[in-house]
Predict the 3D structure of the following.
Amino acid sequence: MNSVGISFESKCVTYLSAVHKRDNGDLERRPCTGFFWRSAGTPFLITCRHCVTGVDGNNNNVGDSEFRPTHLQTYFRTPGKKEDDGATFYDNQAIEFILWQKGVPKWQEHPDGATVDLAALEYSNACHEVHCVNDKEQPSFRTDAGSDCFIVGYPEGLGGSEGTPIWKRGSIASEPELKLNGQDCFLVDSATRSGMSGSPVFAKLMGDFGPEGVPHSPNENLKLFGFWTKFLGVYSGRNGVDDYGFQLGRVWKGDLIAETVSNKNCPAPPWKVMSPTK
């Protein structure tokens, strides 16, 4: 296969496998999604809080599930063997993010804790350079209810060629600048699936922009043409339990990420079952 371009946004997104070790030694895995974000020069893996705790993101109930992840596993696409005809093959290398150390959570969460379904894990592996969503300057065009959006992740763990994520189309279903039931999130209308929690959500606009439009051109007489992609937030699951019912998903607003990665307070677990011992 010839080496081809991969969109910047796809390079920022990674497949995650939340891993729980059972008493008999068997490993149980559940797929989810994450992406990278840079803060003060340091990359962080961003995903949903319920992906690292095993606790339902809707109501923080433990329920009947005994799934308690001990770590997250991700795979990095690294260029491998290059053939004479220019074809490049990619190797997938596994990296683990440890979630607990001596009963202490290793992730960071929002100052509001369990009420915001976000988690961040500092990435310190210098062997693999990562692309971070906010490394790319964000355009300032406005998005409204009814605008198209894309949820970029791994539905049921499914990815595209070379492990790239799936761009699942949707539309913004509630006013994105307003709070939803007092929370900094909004709804999207899309037939999402499990495994997509932690996916970044982007608006993508095609067109030309004059001097009063966005993004702004250095030359006020020059129009810009093309696609413009804007990060909106983090997808964290569907409303309701019916896979086909509402088809409405929650998206936590992107501004909450900065508040999450800057919060150094240790998470205080509200669930009944504490950290895994195995």
